[in-house]
Structures are given as structure tokens and as C-alpha cells.
Amino acid sequence: xxxxxxxxxxxxxxxxxxxxxxxxxxxxxxxxxxxxxxxxxxxxxxxxxxxxxxxxxxxxxxxxxxxxxxxxxxxxxxxxx
Amino acid sequence: xxxxxxxxxxxxxxxxxxxxxxxxxxxxxxxxxxxxxxxxxxxxxxxxxxxxxxxxxxxxxxxxxxxxxxxxxxxxxxxxxxxxxxxxxxxxxxxxxxxxxxxxxxxxxxxxxxxxxxxxxxxxxxxxxxxxxxxxxxxxxxxxxxxxxxxxxxxxxxxxxxxxxxxxxxxxxxxxxxxxxxxxxxxxxxxxxxxxxxxxxxxxxxxxxxxxxxxxxxxxxxxxxxxxxxxxxxxxxxxxxxxxxxxxxxxxxxxxxxxxxxxxxxxxxxxxxxxxxxxxxxxxxxxxxxxxxxxxxxxxxxxxxxxxxxxxxxxxxxxxxxxxxxxxxxxxxxxxxxxxxxxxxxxxxxxxxxxxxxxxxxxxxxxxxxxxxxxxxxxxxxxxxxxxxxxxxxxxxxxxxxxxxxxxxxx
Lengths: 81, 411
Prior knowledge:
Chain A is mainly alpha-helical. Chain A contains four helices and no strands. In chain B, helix 1 packs across helix 12.
């Protein structure tokens, strides 16, 4: 599963920027997404995918880092289903 | 210690009367009411409840990505505060450690708290939105205003029910007067027109019944047969500065804040006490350096409850003696409702404009006076062309706190 398109869609909506400005290697900081924006985004992704991300705090630098984290959960969800 | 004089260099307001301090004052002078049928966003409704709601979209002042940290009361707060700051022409980057924010709100982010409860208890979720704490905390508006202005001095929040923002303005006045800061953006905001909070107010049996034929007339302070208060939402702010600070930068001075009287009834949790109110007014009169006859107008607390309006009529007589007969007293709550934690600031903004323009807004819909409320309550029609040397704004709260602020023309 590749959650990147959903990550980009939700992030674009929250930051009010065109979706195509968000690429996998775009840095979150460059987009103006601070730690609170990322917490909100992860919450919305959890709702969207019906998953619950744990308390681990991986270093999230680029947009793909978030997608990777979500993909890990989606993979284990698929495996346990 | 030399006491600083405290002047007003900016005003801001947003309420059911409109966006902007001028718009609010014009509407009040015209006797227009912002009261209508309460409309709630969620599934649950309280039928036949009047409310002074801001119906249009709010000014777009924060980015989409920031909205999760902004409860509606913070949005209203920033709308008012940014207007006051802009009018003052202050360069916020100058000596920011000498600039502060003193804000008032009764219940802060009540809407945020309520939607969290809906998520948990109605929708059966096991968690709430991540920004619930920082959006819902009662000092959220104060903090956001300080952040946006870059003000690094004292940022204080006052939560004392219906005097919250009057207290914030009064304490800001002392803060500048005693030299702790040169500039304070002071005011308050409240947005609790949500199902749970309105239901709680209703349970207390203080809300006015809905006037089905004329919803806008539902709040009738000082009238015979008045039925209670009408809840409203608002934000209002004043830019306060030491006279030195304002003069040094060549600011336009709108008026001078000359007194802050404050007392507590210590008699009953809700029942108004004329003696407590009188003490606040007397204290303000003693402080202001003007004869009581200089006060030409009082913007009354005048919430429209049977007991409250009567107590205030008595307390004004006690504080002013025979001079009470010559005073114009009006309750603009007849038009913008009781905006609770924002009320003191909204009404102080109105009072300041009355002094500036020599025009007194009416008590709207006062066509059937209560014989026991026998002062000049400026019924129905504004009085224009009435030079005012000074005016008082009264705010009284559940919990017994009373505040009287006096604003004078700047000379």
C-alpha cells in the first residue's frame, strides 16, 4: 500500500497549497508544516485508514517519511486481517 | 512613584451587530438588534431560544493549517485585537518586552471541549482531536494574540464570568499606570453558543423567552415584564498605552481610561447586590479625579433580568445620589445580547465611542418602562450631539465581582 497520495491530499488541504507542490521528497519544514501540523495530519490519516499509530516518534523530515510510517501500519493491518 | 496616565489608541469589536468597532457603534446608535433565533451547528437544537449570534463568516485572519488551534473564541479575539492594534498604528516590534496582552473569557474554548465530548460520549470514539488542549484552554485567545503581535511582556488571562474582560481592561490599566508595561492590548472574547452551554444557562432560568413575533426584541433591559438575558458571542479589544508611549510615537489618542473600580458582593453566588455594585462605582468615582457630575453617561450592565436591572437602578442612585437623575444610562445588551466574558470589553468600546462622538446609544425596545427602574435609560432613540466629558461602563458577574471603568475625553 502506498499512502503517499492521501498524505499529499490531506497535507495540501491543511496547508492550503496546491497538491502538486507536494512531492515525496518535499521537506515538511519547507512547506511550513510544523510539529503541530504533523500531529493533526497523522490524526486525520489514522481516521482515514482506520489505524492507530503508536507512540513512537520517528524523525519525519520529508513527506515520504510520513507515508512510510503510515504504510508500515497499513501493512501490519493487512497482515492481521 | 509617578503614576502613568493611560490612554486608548485603538478599538476593535466583532459581535452580532457586525464586524468592526465603528460598525458596532453605528448599529447600536441606530437601535438595531443582532438578536434572532439560536441556530446550532450540530444535530441537537434548543428550539425557541433567542441568541445574539454572529451569522456571517468570520474575517479570514488565520491560515487553514492554523485553524485546529483556534477555537471560535480565539478567532473572535484575534479579529478584535488585530483591529485595535491596526488602528493604533503601533509598530509591534518596538520594545516588545514592554508590551502585553490582558484578556478575558468566561469559558474559553467551550466549543472545542464540547466537540471532544461529542466524539467520546456520542460517537463512541476513544480519542479527541490532537489540538483540543491548546485550542480549548481559557488562555488560548490571549496566547494567540500575544504570539501574533510578538508581545513579550505580561500576558494574563482573567476568567471571572461576566466581568472577565472588564477586569482584564482594569488590570491592564493598573499595569500600565504603575509602570510595569507601556502598552497592553486588552479585551475579551466569548463563543459559547453551543448545545451544552446554552442548556446549562437555560437550566439556571435566567434566559429571556423567545419573542416569536419580533425575535430581535427578545432582550428588554429595564422594561416592565422583562424576561431575562439573551446569550451572545463577541470579541472586543482596546489598545491601551501610557500617555508617554502614545505621545512619543505621535499616536492619535482616542480617549483616556481614568478609573477602575472593583469590588465583590460576598453575599450570594448569583443574586446581585446593590451595595457591592455601589462600592465599585464609588471607587471609580474617587479615583478618576473628576467630579461625579462630569460623568454624563453610564453603559449599564443591564442584562435584562428582573432582579439585576432593579439592583443596578438602586446602586446607581446610591453611588451618584441626586446626580443620578441627570445621568443617561443605557443597556446596549438590548441589541448585542449578553456576551459574557466579552461583555465588559464590548461595552467599554461602545462607551469610549460615546465619549468620542458625543452620542449615546439607546436601550432598544424600552417602550414599556418598569416604574421601579426610574432613571433616564435613553429609551428607543440614540441621543446625538451630547458632549460627554466622561462616561462609565458597568459590569457585574455571577460570583459577585463588580467592575466600573471610567473613560474620559483626552485633554
